[in-house]
Amino acid sequence: MAMPTIDQQLCFALYSASRAMTASYRPLLDGLGLTYPQYLVMLVMWEDERLTVGHLGARLHLDSGTLSPLLKRLESRGLVARERSAEDERVVEVALTPEGRSLQELARDVPRQAFSATGLSLSDSADLLQAVHQLTRSLEESRHHSSPDELSRRKDIP
Fold first, then answer.
1. Of 103, 104, 114, 157, which is the most exposed, with the fewest CB atoms less than 10 Å away?
2. Architecture of the domain delimited by 31-106
């Protein structure tokens, strides 16, 4: 069996799409003074105005080494505040500030503008979103339940 070319690799297609999607957000977020990862943090904070760093990391699939610098920058801008939990000082909580809350109104049109750049219909977008969520669940489950040797022995994997 011949090695698939890079254009036949699902991983490369997803990587390329992710980079293109992120790049399409850049001009939309520049006016807000946010990077794309900071925008993702703010999206979660706008849903849940107070949560632990651990919960935020789990929602975004980010480890604390990646999340901490993002939170530090957002805190220096006055958009979020970090503080130790009163119940357990090992736990750090993140809270949305009034400035962070007001930024949501300025960002309200970003999803619509970003979606229009995709060229997808609402139906195609919903189908793609569902497929990507299923792919993520399957990959995470596979990673937690299969060793690399087991995966390499599977005959149905190209």
1. 157
2. Orthogonal Bundle (1.10)
